[in-house]
Amino acid sequence: MFLISSSVHGSDEHGRLLRRTLMRYVNLTSLLIFRSVSTAVYKRFPTMDHVVEAARGIKHILPANFEMQSF
What we know:
Blueprint: H1 2-7, H2 13-37, H3 39-44, H4 48-54
Function: Forms calcium-sensitive chloride channels. Permeable to bicarbonate.
Family: Belongs to the anion channel-forming bestrophin (TC 1.A.46) family. Calcium-sensitive chloride channel subfamily.
Organism: Propithecus coquereli (Coquerel's sifaka)
């Protein structure tokens, strides 16, 4: 988080939205990694629909045809 806030400059609305969007991507990536590694996280989020329901506001990040493959 510190790296993003120090790398993306600007105190205006655009900079704030860019930092927020980048952190959403980082959090989503972390969740997907934890989901593939941890059984407890996988049980909490068995499908991507559960992820979207749990985190309001990220549905616009995922592509319309996004489908998670189980490993």
